[in-house]
């Protein structure tokens, strides 16, 4: 990944991909003082760019820092990277972090950096597995209480337990893991939100200790537009047995059906298929209203 052609936007300039480096004494590396975004462009337009850039700014504020660029500047830089990379369809990764001036837990005055990269990433999961429905493990790690970690920030540190859970699942042959929260309730996957279907009604956990994903909110809107009832509530793991369909949502994952979670089985049913199609139709609209929807 570190040796590619192309450019990365870094602290206000476009730099060659191979030169986009940071010092080893970077605070963000040692103490996880970093926040990031995951965005996708379809047909040359970044889907919900404004919401992603705003979440990046808010994530930084939650970690106690101000990104030294305005919303408009971040949007413009993101569009510039996409244009310079020459991609119509791409994944974009903005990241902001505390720099290297002070080394220690306290780093109040370290410079805040921002970088934005873009690459081609057609499918987050294996396309064949996607069609059949993913196989998910149930993670041993749990999403922390919001009093234990800043769960509303898309903060790098929160991904430590995600990588641990995803690696453990992959070692057992699963595509990903479903994570419970500290109370033992169903929370989300390692990089996506989760939904269930029972008797034509969609059920999804209340996002009180994990990201209320931009894709999650989009898909809830699409379901409601189809007249499908969506219930946000606490979901216990014992309930998994009674659900007929399951899917996950995320910028990278888009809408992906789930075929099994541990011992439980789900069909790739009509509601999942409808929402997959509706989501792809929405994101691929080239008009400005896709960004506004
Ligand atoms: N939860 C986690 C842990 C994630 O990393 C993501 C991806 N950003 C999501 C949920 C889904 O968020 P979004 O739909 O905004 O991409």
Automatic annotation (TrEMBL):
Keywords: Amino-acid biosynthesis, Aminotransferase, Branched-chain amino acid biosynthesis, Pyridoxal phosphate, Transferase
Example GO biological process: isoleucine biosynthetic process
A Pfam match: Aminotran_4
The protein's required cofactors: pyridoxal 5'-phosphate
Keyword field contains Transferase: yes
EC number: 2.6.1.42
Reaction equations catalysed: L-valine + 2-oxoglutarate = 3-methyl-2-oxobutanoate + L-glutamate; L-isoleucine + 2-oxoglutarate = (S)-3-methyl-2-oxopentanoate + L-glutamate; L-leucine + 2-oxoglutarate = 4-methyl-2-oxopentanoate + L-glutamate
Pathway: Amino-acid biosynthesis; L-leucine biosynthesis; L-leucine from 3-methyl-2-oxobutanoate: step 4/4; Amino-acid biosynthesis; L-valine biosynthesis; L-valine from pyruvate: step 4/4; Amino-acid biosynthesis; L-isoleucine biosynthesis; L-isoleucine from 2-oxobutanoate: step 4/4
Highest taxon of the lineage: Bacteria
Signal peptide boundaries: none
Family: Belongs to the class-IV pyridoxal-phosphate-dependent aminotransferase family.
Annotated NCBIfam families: ilvE_I, PRK06606.1, PRK07544.1
Described function: Acts on leucine, isoleucine and valine.
Protein's name in the database: Branched-chain-amino-acid aminotransferase
Phylogenetic placement of the source organism: Bacteria, Pseudomonadati, Pseudomonadota, Alphaproteobacteria, Rhodobacterales
């Amino acid at each position: 990944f570190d040796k590619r052609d192309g450019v990365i936007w870094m602290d206000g300039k476009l730099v060659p991909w191979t030169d986009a480096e940071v010092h080893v004494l970077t605070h963000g590396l040692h103490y996880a003082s970093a926040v990031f975004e995951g965005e996708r462009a379809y047909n040359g337009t970044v889907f919900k760019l404004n919401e992603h850039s705003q979440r990046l700014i808010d994530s930084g504020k939650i970690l106690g820092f101000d990104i030294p660029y305005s919303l408009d500047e971040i949007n413009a830089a993101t569009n510039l990277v996409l244009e310079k990379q020459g991609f119509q369809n791409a994944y974009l990764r903005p990241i902001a972090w505390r720099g290297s001036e002070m080394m220690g837990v306290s780093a109040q005055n370290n410079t805040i950096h921002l970088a934005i990269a873009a690459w081609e990433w057609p499918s987050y999961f294996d396309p064949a597995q996607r069609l059949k429905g993913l196989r998910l493990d149930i993670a041993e790690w749990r999403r922390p209480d919001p009093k234990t970690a800043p769960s509303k920030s898309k903060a790098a540190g929160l991904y430590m337990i995600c990588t641990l859970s995803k690696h453990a699942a992959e070692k057992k042959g699963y595509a990903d893991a479903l994570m419970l929260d500290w109370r033992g309730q169903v929370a989300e996957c390692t990089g996506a939100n989760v939904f269930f279907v029972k008797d034509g009604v969609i059920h999804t956990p209340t996002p009180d200790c994990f990201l209320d994903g931009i894709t999650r909110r989009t898909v809830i809107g699409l379901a409601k537009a189809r007249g499908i009832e969506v219930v946000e509530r606490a979901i216990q793991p014992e309930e998994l047995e009674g659900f007929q369909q399951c899917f996950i949502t995320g910028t990278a994952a888009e809408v992906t059906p789930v075929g099994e979670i541990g011992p439980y089985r789900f069909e790739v049913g009509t509601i999942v298929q409808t929402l997959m199609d509706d989501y792809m139709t929405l994101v691929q609209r080239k008009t400005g209203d896709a960004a506004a929807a």
